[in-house]
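Subject: sequence -> structure tokens, single chain

Hey, anyone have a minute? Need the predicted structure for the following. Not urgent.
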Amino acid sequence: MEIERKTEKAYGYPGLLTDRKEHFCPGCSHGILSKVIAEVIAGMGFQERAVGVYGAGCATIMYEYIDIKGVAAPPGSAVGIAAGIKDAMKNALVFVYAGDSDIMSDLSAVLGAAMRNDRITIICENNFNMGISGGAMSPTTPLGISTTTSPSGRSFAGQGSPLAVSELVRGAQRAGYCARGSSHSPGAVKKVKAMIKKAFMEQMFGSGMGFVEIAGMCPTNLNLPPVEAAMKIKEILEDLPTGEMK
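Reply:
Had a minute. Here:
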């Protein structure tokens, strides 16, 4: 008797991704997340209404990779620009995509948006360093991690403790949705995809702002091969809880 086998498509090239070659380093999470964001927007049918605001740094020209409306923001300005666009285009799906350093460079804008529960979505790719600056220490760099500006590893005595981004946003209390995920494994990426979709749903059909922090790999500045960089992120997450916080 012939056995019926069910198959599931595990990989594809999202229609919203352009055919332009991305500039991201091998193993970088930005390439992974550009695909995930494109899949979520297309799956929700928002490609004509989506507007991406991309923060300064490695992902600043992501508007050339995802075939939706998009703008590159000056350093620290992405959240404010996104709030302005949403105010002018109330039916648009407006999201910020930025690294941890750019998000933290104007933390008051992020916390203000959370306190007001602005109808925008903020996606923070946290690779724990300032990638565009050659791997300098960022506010989120964990203790013990070496960077170009903390070659001996971040220490509490020398550079102070790192900031936990999602906890800060959750502390503002009014943000409708807050979550932390990771891109270090296929299973983790699948969870991130669900988080981003929920954040978009919160903006379009819920109370307002969604914030998704994603622990990402930066193999170049971690000085590790991509697989080892992914395992390093998994190790870092032992001290950072993942999942939905609100």
